[in-house]
Amino acid sequence: MDLKWNTEKAAAPQGVLTGCEESQEWMLKWWFENYSKHNTLPVTFADFGMSASARSWCEKRGNVISIPPQELQNAKNAPWADKVPGYIWNHRTIWFCKPLAFLKTPYETTIWTDIDCEIIKNITPMFSLAEVPDGFAIRYDKQEYEKYYKEHSILKHEARCYQAGVIVFKRYSKVINNWAKYCFTQNNQEYSEQSALSHLLSEKPLDITHFSDNYHWFQSDTKNPSAYIIHHSGAFSKRRLLSSINLK
Questions:
Q1: Counting CB atoms within 10 angstroms of each CB, which of 75, 139, 144, 175 has the fewest?
Q2: CA nearest 67: which of 33, 106, 93, 31?
């Protein structure tokens, strides 16, 4: 496993990173169309296990980096293991590989969005959010989600919950280094890359930006004309999104 930064000369000062594996590639075209309506900065796609046709589609529209799946430690004895739905186990490998993609960014400053994020404005103003000593910006998760995670032993009571669907980071940010290492040393206890980051930031003093939820809004919330990115997280939102895409 490669936990080192991409040290090649940056391809651009600023760029956008997203990624998926085969079961999520139905959102690729939708994501790119929304992004391209408002933005022209270069895009890199992380291939976490795409089909050959999806990878070829991405290569015509941006850079592609391969992030092969990594074997995780046995987490059957983790405190949350008997409290979460069974389908979660199939997602964990991809979740924990996200920070590996961040290490391979070809940009000096990167905005990452999950593939289920709808970009509805020019997101260039977000790059400045990472201009802090440890070069990292993120929002807190919704309070009801934090409550759920603590009730299900996913999150320790002293930790705040962060939402890793949209982040902004500088190349060589200490947060990314530490996050990637934490993911692959603690995944026998951690539920996801997001819980790993939340625990890391509660344990280690790092100087980051906590940005407004206008930069990362949830589709399930009320409409927000100030939102830059709308996250269609969760199975219910995905079903609605799939229906809307199929109707086009």
A1: 144
A2: 93
Tens digits of per-residue pLDDT, 157-169?
999 999 999 999 9
Give the Cβ contact number of residue 51 at 10 Å: 12
Residue 2 lies in a domain: no
Answer for the pair 16, 110: CB distance below 8 angstroms, yes or no: yes
Q: What pLDDT, in 10s, does the model give residues 47-93?
A: 999 999 999 999 999 999 999 999 999 999 999 999 999 999 999 99
Q: Which of 117, 111, 119, 112 shows the shortest CA–CA distance to 37?
A: 119
Averaged pLDDT, 173-183: 98
122 domain-assigned: yes
Determine whether 90 is exposed, middle or buried from the number of CB atoms within 10 Å of its CB (0-12, 13-18, 19+): exposed
Q: Which structure tokens are listed for 239? A: 């079903």
Please tell me the total count of domains within the chain.
Answer: 1
Q: Which domain CATH number covers 205? A: 3.90.550.10
d(CA 67, CA 1): 10
Q: Is the pLDDT reported for residue 248 higher than 80?
A: no
In the three-class reduction of DSSP (H, G, I as helix; E, B as strand; rest coil), residue 176 is classed as helix
Distances (CA, A) of 22 to 52, 91, 227: 9, 12, 29
Phi, psi angle pair for 133, to nearest 5°: -50, -40
